[in-house]
Amino acid sequence: MKKITLTLILFLMLTNCGYKALYSNKNLNLNIIKIEKIKKNKLNLTIEKRLNNFSNKQALNKISLKIDAEKEIKVVSKNMQGNPSRYQMIIKLNIDVIDDQNKKINKNITQDFSYNTNSNRFTLSQYEIEIEEVLINKIIDELIKDLSKL
Question: Which pTM value belongs to this model?
Answer without folding.
Answer: 0.77
